[in-house]
Protein: Aryl-alcohol dehydrogenase-like predicted oxidoreductase
Organism: Saccharothrix saharensis
Amino acid sequence: MRASLRPGRRRRLCDMTMKYRLFGQTGLRVSEPLLGTMTFDDPAEASRIVDAYADAGGNVLDTASAYGDGEELLGEIVRRRDRFVIGTKYTLSRDAVDPNASGNHRKTLVSSLDRSLRRLRTDYVDVYWVHIWDRHTPVEETMRALDDAVRAGKVLYTGISDAPAWVVARANTLAQWRDWTPFAGLQVPCNLLNRDVERELLPMAEALGLSVTAWAPLAAGKLSGSSSPRRVDPATLTDTERAAARAVREVADELGVRPAQVALAWTRAKSRAVLPLVGVSSVDQLHENLGALDVTLPDDAVRRLEAAVDFRLGFPGDFIAECEPSPFVFGDTATRVEPR
């Protein structure tokens, strides 16, 4: 295990070593963290951010068809396309008056993918994400259409964002049975203020071997402190948000690091499956976020951070945890069975 930063010691960017993970149950190497590009609007600054990210060893750029001109901007500034893992998404409407310009069905998948390829100036995307679950499209249609895109060479890997655990599990089971390309990644919100994924989505992803790209790891700036260029007005925070921000700040002061780095380190500590997805507006902010790679939170710090925000798994998680050690449920050997 990496040593925690001692109080008063700040990690220099030149000392930081980029970390890499395998993407789901594939051999694709992805850097940690991933770089989100939703807020990119200035070509010059976006280019500097991407170059700095690449110089640090980062290789994953995340965008979407719905991110305004973000896809097109990314296509303009990316150099050495083969060195990056580019992911984009489809589902969200491209034309509000066209009923078939949104959703997860084959027609919108094909048209959205071709549009994204043109805007990104590439003939393939590394990861193609379903942006959100579409209740009206059978999951069989979506998975078969995605597999066709993979077989056509336009997509290398697939993922899904913002969907119930049962939908993802059913989709990957169908893919396994029918020899289609399964989802390798799951994209969901995850931060100290929003831990809902711990109930069903994260356990499901761990069991199925999916990578979890965590969006909003800083809770839209609420956990990043004054270093955020879009500083959140403290007067707008709820009592819970203030308590979480205060706990993050206290731990950061003790370790001699920035609040954003503590918040990201907490997200990374939740599971080996989790890959934080950071969105930045400047190179300085990128450098600060990358510094989280060398922050390991002591167990006591993790407990204090989580104690600042009330969270319960709810049913069935809490109920099963209570029943597990009970001889009434699993017999006299309940507490002597070694977990995998």
Notes: The longest strand covers residues 155-161.
